[in-house]
Amino acid sequence: MIKAAVVILNWNGRHFLEKFLATVVAASPANITKVYIADNCSTDQSVDYIKNNFPDVNIIELDRNYGFALGYKLALRQIDAEYFILLNSDVEVTDNWIPPIINFMDNHVECGACMPKIRSYNNKDYFEYAGAAGGFIDIYGYPFCRGRILNQIEQDTGQYDTVQEVFWATGACMFLRAEAYYKAGELDGDFFTHMEEIDLCWRLKNCNYSIYCLPEVSVYHIGGGTLPNNNPKKLYYNYRNSLFLLFKNLPSKKLFSILFIRLFLDGLSALVYFGKLQFGFFLAVLRAHCSFYLQITKLYLKRKKNRHMHKEFLSGIFPESIVYNFLIKNKKKFNALRPFLKSK
Asked: Within this chain, do residues 26 and 93 fall inside the same structural domain, yes or no?
């Protein structure tokens, strides 16, 4: 067994591999890590490029595009390591990016997952949307971060440089304790892409593991490499997978009330898209709800299987609407959520 496996899931991302893979290999200490590329049946000669230029990088070739969640799930089953490091292909790592987090997790056995600080590759003084300095969700399942509320991204001035227990770690650069990962039930392949890491972290927390952000380590993420933020397909996965997330993990006493409100809020947002003549986004919300309803039985079986995990309260869930706080109370920075911060 190796100490840590750096696993990059690739799908037609040769341009990112050409840009970033050499740095990943150089900055990953060979005495404790191996680098793997899990390829989702790319058609851009990604595999040939790796074989010709990085003979020491291990390649796991999948027979089709399984998406993020199932692709990683199938790949990780083929790797024997104490820690898995999930890394997006569009991330620039920094020197000594692995040892501090591995040392932290070795010394904190309750830590099931950990992440570094995620900064924007294209605007390096700012946080990056997908993770920033650690993720949280509100009571209705809307995710936000230290350093990013909805679409408002903060400049990194060191305001979140303390080690912090968070609710979720981003899949863009996520350190996982393998034992905890399997205990929590692995990634859920039905998510395909988006929010699968939040679902996993929720289950990790229900298994009494903690999730941390260690901001002494920074990496730089381009973001939107596979699906840009303005893509209706991305909106579809975000809305659908939010419903999957809530249905699977909410405690029974809160499930139907919170789910009803979330469905209502989704309906309002769909009407807003319709009013703005953004019909692609309007249809994406409708498709997300239809997919959710069609998979209720399957989700119920997953929920029933993990019913022992549904705890009444978990740290990191904001007990109010983050949308209301952002739009009505004008709280556009994480540090403005003072009552929430006091409980952290």
From this structure: yes
Mean pLDDT of 39-60: 97
Q: Which helix (H) or strand (E) holds 43?
A: none
pLDDT tens digits along 95-135? 999 999 999 999 999 999 999 999 999 999 999 999 999 99
* CA of residue 303 relative to chain centroid, distance: 20
Q: Is 11 helix (H, G, I), strand (E, B) or coil?
A: coil
Position 343 pLDDT exceeds 50: no
Residue of 78, 59, 65, 63 whose CA lies nearest to 12? 65
211 and 237 part of one domain: no
3-state SS record for 145-206:
ECCEECCEECECCCCCCCCEEECECCCCEEEEEHHHHHHHCCCCHHHCCCCHHHHHHHHHHH
Both 243 and 215 in a single domain? no
Rounded to 5 degrees, φ, ψ at 154 are: -90, 155
Q: How far apart are CA 186 and CA 77, in angstroms?
A: 10
Reported as a single tens digit per residue, the pLDDT across 256-284 is 999 999 999 999 999 999 999 999 999 99
Of 12, 156, 173, which is closest to residue 93 (Cα–Cα)?
173
The pair of structure tokens assigned to 285 is 């919300």
Residue 334 lies in a domain: no
Range of the domain at 264: 232-312
Q: Where are the alpha helices (DSSP H) in the chain?
A: 14-27, 46-53, 67-76, 99-107, 178-184, 196-206, 232-249, 252-275, 279-294, 296-305, 322-327, 338-342
Cα angle value 91/64/242 (rounded, 5°): 60
87 within domain boundaries: yes
Partnered with residue 37 across adjacent β-strands are 8, 59
Count Cβ atoms below 10 Å from residue 202 Cβ, excluding itself: 27
Return the SS3 of 12. Answer: coil
